[in-house]
Design a protein that fits this description.
single chain; mainly alpha; 8 helices; elongated
Length: 208
């Protein structure tokens, strides 16, 4: 189980890092093109041919790095990240939910409502898995490819059944844990990680 948890975290971190790096490179290229073009015009206006030629060469080199596909790839990375991030959210209890009724209940009534809620999550994600598999199958049969990258779209859409399957497993895992131990993973959305530790360190330093 720990291996699956670790793989899940590595996949999400890798997707975030890849998307961030790709966005940075794409934006840097755009601004570099504007800068070199402006430099070339400025140098020619002052008859600085050496600088103008260098700026032109730099402009052509940067332009040769075709990143038209970057936006499309970023969208796909975020789609995969969102699907597997949702499963991670179930595992650690960071999903935002409407639990006003459950919080007001006590004893057996609260237990029953919690089990119903988790069971609903299992059923919903299982349905998504079935629909996702059917959708991916039909896309594969149609031979659809992405506009810029020209990748098979069925591979990209695999995020739906795979992410939903992992999310369904996490709901089953959470339900089993609740039934056997009564524990429900929960995160305080009003808290900021690390603040309490930092406050304690400052307090110790102040007393010293």
């Amino acid at each position: 189980m720990r291996l699956l948890d670790r793989l899940e975290e590595i996949l999400i971190a890798t997707l975030i890092a890849a998307a961030t790096l790709l966005i940075f490179v794409s934006v840097a290229q755009r601004y570099s093109l504007d800068f070199t073009a402006s430099t070339m015009r400025w140098a020619r206006g002052r008859e600085m041919e050496g600088l103008a030629d260098f700026a032109k060469s730099s402009f052509m080199f940067i332009k040769s790095m075709n990143l038209v596909w970057a936006q499309e790839l970023c969208i796909y990375l975020f789609v995969w990240m969102a699907k597997f991030g949702a499963a991670y959210g179930v595992r650690v209890g960071i999903h935002v939910g409407v639990d006003i009724l459950v919080e007001r209940l006590e004893g057996q009534a609260r237990q029953i409502m919690t089990i119903i809620a988790m069971s609903g999550g299992i059923i919903f994600t299982a349905i998504l898995v079935w629909i996702g598999i059917d959708f991916v199958w039909h896309v594969r049969q149609g031979g659809q490819t992405s506009p810029d990258l020209e990748w098979p779209m069925w591979i990209i859409y695999l995020a739906v059944p795979l992410g939903s399957a992992l999310m369904c497993f996490r709901f089953i895992q959470a339900l089993y844990l609740y039934i056997t131990t009564g524990f429900v993973a929960h995160h305080d959305h009003g808290a900021v990680d690390g603040i309490e530790d930092e406050a304690q360190d400052l307090a110790k330093g102040g007393h010293a």
